[in-house]
Amino acid sequence: MRNVLPVLLEEIGPDTGEEVMLRLRLGSGGVLLSRITAEAARRLDLRPGQPLWALVKSVALSQGGAAREEESG
User: Fold this and answer.
1) What is the widest separation between alpha-carbon atoms in the chain?
2) pLDDT (tens digit, 0 to 9) for every residue of the chain, 73 residues total?
């Protein structure tokens, strides 16, 4: 993971049976929303006010024909 961000768990949304929504506050004041399984929330014993680390997966996308040109060449 390249993007590891310190956050504060502000709120745990309602349990829909399968998933819960977490509201995470960044140090800069921004907000991240994260959807995790209800089982994971229980196993991690998450509570509002906890400091956490948000691990953000990312991918690089290329727009245009560069990749297609390489494949055909």
Assistant:
1) 55
2) 678 999 999 999 987 889 999 999 999 999 988 999 999 999 999 999 999 999 988 755 556 655 444 444 4
